[in-house]
Amino acid sequence: MTVPTDLYAVIGHPVAHSRSPAIHAAFAAATGQALRYERVQAPLDGFAQTLADFAEQGGRGCNVTVPFKFEAFEAAAERSERAELAGAVNTLKRDGDRWLADNTDGVGLVRDIVTNAGVPLAGQRVLLIGAGGAGAGVLGPLLTEGPVQLVLANRSLDKAQALTAGHAALARRHGVDLLASGLEAPGTGFDVVLNATASSLGGGEIPVPATVLRPGALALDLMYGPAARPFLAWAARHGAIGRDGLGMLVEQAAESFAWWRGVRPPTAGVLATLRAEVDATQGH
Ligand code: NDP
């Protein structure tokens, strides 16, 4: 007799590069949970159908990645407060015949900064660059940490303004001076600088002047692997402490896993293994 295992997946396009199956397999092994976690590539115009098929196969939950985080938002019958604020969803959980939604990117990033890197956000000046899906997902959880100021800088200023307007009440509740800016002059001497743009992907220029960094600032690119290298080198050249997005990746996955399974997996070992794999592919 075979023991039934619950089915999970990451849905995206492309999705072949995703490390989520390995991360969730490691979490399942560490917590003794019986589950299967697959990669599912949805056609660009076929997210809703792919999600319906996945439910039909008995899918219990899924992560959703580029470019479907906004469609996942629409597909959900109920959303967490942070998913509502973000307008984007990276985690779905099956509940009877409907999907519940959350966005765990922001809490994953916060946990990597505060717990793994040991850098507090409370009372700090934070620059968040990028108002796309990732920027939208992390803004709320960053604000709830109570930085004294958070500047959201984006190439298209109107997107940054829309996002800060949507988060104004939350910022007020946590005593944060929340501002929108373009990329040319977002301010100087920040304690924490977060790159949530896709500029690293194209090997593009660092999108802001180096004066945004105070000496010893934490400079974190949400990207990881070779794509994060130019940003990390830029941070080191200008006296900041560079960090990539691998810790965030593992921590957001842990948050999804905990929501699905009701048990929080340990993350340190998984992050160390992943770090070694990524470094090996970079020729270290
Ligand atoms: P989106 O496509 O939704 O947004 C892209 C953002 O990048 C926009 O703010 C856009 O500005 C900006 N941008 C793109 N090209 C440039 C450029 N050349 N110069 C300046 N700004 C630019 O992408 P996402 O927000 O979903 O993803 C952003 C990054 O975050 C990706 O690299 C992704 O891999 C990473 N990520 C990492 C995660 C992790 O767990 N580590 C989780 C989620 C995302 P504009 O609005 O003006 O177009």
Structural class, judged by helices and strands? alpha/beta
The H/E string reads EHEHEHEHEEHEHEHHEEEHEHH
Helix content: 25-40%
* Lateral arrangement of strands in the main beta sheet: 2-1-3-5-6-4
Radius of gyration: 19 Å
Specify the overall morphology.
Answer: globular
Contiguous runs where pLDDT drops below 50 for at least 5 residues: none
Tally of alpha and pi helices: 11
How confident overall, as mean pLDDT? Answer: 95
Oligomeric state of this protein: single chain
**Span of the ends, CA to CA:** 46 Å
**Overall number of strands:** 12
Each distinct ligand: NADPH dihydro-nicotinamide-adenine-dinucleotide phosphate
Q: What portion of residues belong to β-strands? A: 15-25%
For the biggest sheet, the summary is: 6 strands, mixed
Describe the protein's architecture and organization.
With 284 residues, this protein is an alpha/beta fold. It has eleven helices and twelve strands. A six-stranded mixed β-sheet has the order 2-1-3-5-6-4, with helices on both faces. It has a six-stranded parallel β-sheet with strand order 9-8-7-10-11-12, sandwiched between helices. Helix 5 crosses helix 10. It is globular and about 55 Å long. The structure holds NADPH dihydro-nicotinamide-adenine-dinucleotide phosphate. The site of NADPH dihydro-nicotinamide-adenine-dinucleotide phosphate (NDP) has 26 residues, from helix 6 and helix 10. NADPH dihydro-nicotinamide-adenine-dinucleotide phosphate (NDP) binds next to helix 6 and helix 10.
What labels would you give this structure?
6-stranded parallel beta sheet, 284 residues, alpha/beta, 40% helix, 6-stranded mixed beta sheet
